[in-house]
Write a structure and sequence with these properties.
With 685 residues, this protein is of the alpha+beta class. The chain has 11 helices and 39 strands. An 8-stranded parallel β-sheet has the order 8-7-6-5-2-11-10-9. It has a 6-stranded antiparallel β-sheet with strand order 1-25-24-38-22-21. It has a 6-stranded antiparallel β-sheet with strand order 28-27-30-35-32-33, with no helix packed on it. Helix 6 packs across helix 7 and helix 10 packs across helix 11. The structure holds alpha-D-glucopyranose (GLC).
Length: 685
């Protein structure tokens, strides 16, 4: 036993082993919170109109694909593109007034036209247009003068480059080797000739893991502090990027950003856009911003200047209104941490910074006129008094707020100061002695191959529970987890452990279960995150079968199991590019398989209830033309148990245990630890 204790002590690891992502630059990037996005290019000249008609399909920056416009014809536009009104200094000044901390400019969009002078192609604003300008240079210098960070959008697809994949409606095409080399040459220029680039906002395309890794490393080699966006794919990025105008439903554990357009329909200039009221639009964007920062994210708000380079007055006004609000309440935004609460509220949202809790009155006025929540372990020192009255009863904090605080949809912020620095509040304490992926608080990131194949990944699990004395835990797992190294954090200490053969224990996991027939349904289209529609089930006699399919299709398996009692059973599941497993409607497993994997078998421990259970397995295909599947009882249902004795007895009422993979290759990838259970040993007194 002594040996084990000293081994554990030796393996005491500091929290946060992913040093690569934990740089000061990353922290700084997160603290900045707000950036201005600029979509500007050849398409801006057309303003969403082709041959006198508005092009209503697709985004206006993609008018070449949606009009559609023959390549030769589109490219001649360059010869008359002269954005005389594009004034980088005045755009930088607007960004400052809007409270933005950086500007991200489209150096090259999908049409392949470069706003920078490049030796890689003549198809750029300097060489192909009468103005002979390099807007990347102008904007980078203007940002520098204005004290703003400067970042670049860069499209991974390119409709001009002759050796690239042909244009397609989904924009998630493969990158040919020649195209990859072309991208690298352009990135080298962009990262060498334009001063510090705060972020590289890659977009679309479908890289192989090697291509993503190579570009990620290239960026960091040339500019170590440059942050790489999630759309580089294959989990090789510094921050996750949500889908366009999308928000996660909970705080993520990794840095993330959402890109927001003035209107969902377009990013590039659209002359016929009905714009409405700028003040109302600003209120909408302020709410988007609050939704983002209260969940720990960064906000990237877009403008699309017209073909002359003028900022659209409506967009300018929205930006300025956002800036006015930030000028007043920016203290609750910049440098803040996400809401300490685990749930969202109808009355608004929260952020925190040190001892301060900031409440944004951005939701609905509460009928009772009261806002209430629990802050266990904290003492309220001060409310800011201007707009509300404050009371604390034990853990409960209660504010009485007048309706005027919500008047005209103007968002006010209240500051509450507590006796100590505010940390994320623990989830509800469990009473169970067995910690499972079902009773855990999951830790989330976004994992992806590409734009359509992304999902909210579970990068670890955390539990809060009450136990007076804690000294020993048992880790219980299957053959599949053996050999894996995990970080086990108990309260504030982390132990790095390898799940070895441990004490082996046979189980009889299927005892008494009755299996019905296996059913198949599909195909369904959509991304890996699309909800299932599950229309027509057909019986299949094959438990291990093959499906002829197309990219972006999902098939579903359905299995009903009658169980005489609540129990965990072990099954074998096989799928291709990605898999999701639901037990009685709850998603219990969801992950991508290694890139271009046509079949991967895994063991899954599924929690059944007494009576009838319905298991649904989603088989996701991104790349292939056929996939194999499998669903059956595990052939060798063995479980392993590893005893962990803590170096010292932990006293205290409540504890937190967290498990994560040790040093994962990417902090965004799914932990694939849903089979792992932890049993808490009671100490006999
Ligand atoms: C999508 C579109 C692209 C746009 C981008 C902004 O990826 O393809 O046109 O620039 O979203 O987020």
């Amino acid at each position: 036993m002594k040996k084990l204790v000293s081994l554990l002590c030796l393996l005491l690891a500091a929290l946060g082993t992913q040093a690569r992502h934990d740089t000061q630059a990353l922290r700084q990037w997160q603290d900045n919170k707000c950036s201005m996005f600029i979509h500007f290019g050849l398409y801006s000249r057309l303003g969403g109109v082709w041959k006198g008609k508005p092009v209503t399909q697709g985004y206006s920056e993609q008018i070449m694909a949606f009009a559609p416009i023959p390549k030769g014809e589109y490219e001649t536009l360059a010869g008359t593109f002269d954005p005389t009104q594009f004034n980088a200094d005045s755009i930088a000044a607007l960004a400052r007034r809007a409270g933005m901390r950086s500007v991200i400019l489209t150096s090259k969009h999908h049409d392949g036209f470069c706003l920078f002078r490049t030796s890689t192609t003549g198809y750029n604003l300097y060489d192909a247009s009468p103005c002979r300008r390099d807007l990347v240079k102008e904007m980078s210098e203007a940002c520098h003068r204005a004290g703003l960070n400067f970042g670049l959008y860069f499209s991974l697809i390119d409709w001009h480059f002759p050796y690239a994949s042909p244009m397609s409606p989904h924009n998630a095409d493969f990158i040919t080797p020649k195209h990859h080399e072309y991208t690298k040459a352009q990135l080298k220029e962009l990262l060498t000739d334009y001063g510090p680039i705060s972020e590289l906002w890659f977009d679309m395309g479908s890289n192989t893991p090697e291509q993503s890794r190579e570009l990620y490393e290239l960026v960091h080699r040339l500019q170590p502090d440059c942050m790489v966006s999630g759309r580089l794919g294959n989990d090789r990025y510094d921050f996750c990027v949500m889908g366009d105008n999308q928000y996660p439903d909970a705080t993520l554990q990794t840095p993330w950003q959402t890109c927001v357009s003035m209107f969902n329909e377009t990013w590039g200039y659209r002359s016929w856009q009905e714009r409405g009221d700028a003040e109302e639009k600003a209120k909408e964007k302020i709410r988007n911003l609050i939704n983002t920062v209260s969940h720990g994210g960064n906000f990237l708000l877009n403008i699309g200047p017209d073909g002359e380079g003028n900022v659209i007055p409506f967009e300018k006004e929205v930006m300025e209104n956002v800036g006015n609000w930030l000028e007043r309440y920016g203290y609750a935004v910049y440098g803040s941490s996400p809401s300490p609460f685990r749930t969202d509220f109808g009355w608004g949202a929260a952020t925190r910074n040190g001892r301060n809790l900031y409440l944004f009155l951005s939701g609905k006025y509460p009928e009772s006129g009261k806002i209430a929540f629990d802050m266990p372990g904290y003492i309220l020192k001060k409310g800011d008094g201007k707009m509300a009255t404050y009371l604390q009863y034990g853990e409960r904090i209660e504010l009485t707020v007048p309706a005027s605080a919500y008047k005209d949809r103007m968002v006010h912020v209240l500051t509450l100061e507590f006796d100590k620095e505010i940390a994320p509040l623990p989830g509800k304490s469990g009473k169970s002695l067995i910690l499972t992926s079902q009773n855990a608080v999951p830790l989330h990131s976004y994992s992806c191959f590409d734009y359509y194949t992304n999902y909210k990944s579970t990068t670890g699990y955390s539990w809060n529970f009450e136990q007076i004395l804690l000294k020993q835990l048992d880790l219980i797992y299957t053959q599949q987890e053996t050999g894996r190294t995990i970080d086990l954090t108990v309260d504030d200490k982390t132990y790095t452990l390898t799940l070895d053969g441990g004490k082996q224990q046979e189980t009889a996991p299927l005892s008494g279960t009755e299996w019905g027939d296996l059913y198949l349904c599909g195909p369904e289209g959509g991304s890996f995150s699309s909800p299932a529609r599950l229309k027509k089930w057909e019986k299949t006699t094959e438990r291990n079968g093959t499906i002829v399919c197309k990219p972006f299709e999902s098939y579903y398996l359905m299995q009903e199991i009658e169980s005489p009692r609540a129990q965990r059973i072990m099954v074998e599941i096989g799928a291709g590019n990605g898999v999701e497993v639901y037990v009685n409607g709850e998603s219990v497993i969801k992950h991508l398989n290694p890139y271009r994997c046509t079949f991967r078998k895994e063991v899954a421990v599924l929690p059944l209830k007494k009576g009838n259970n319905r298991i649904v397995v989603r088989l996701y295909n991104r790349f292939e033309n056929r996939m194999e599947y499998l669903f059956r009882p595990a052939e060798n249902p063995v479980i392993f148990r590893k005893e962990v004795t803590l170096p010292e007895m932990l006293n205290g009422k409540s504890h937190t245990v967290t498990i994560r993979p040790h040093n994962p290759d990417s902090p965004h990838a799914d932990a694939e630890l849903s089979n792992l259970r932890i049993r808490l040993r009671r100490i006999a007194m």
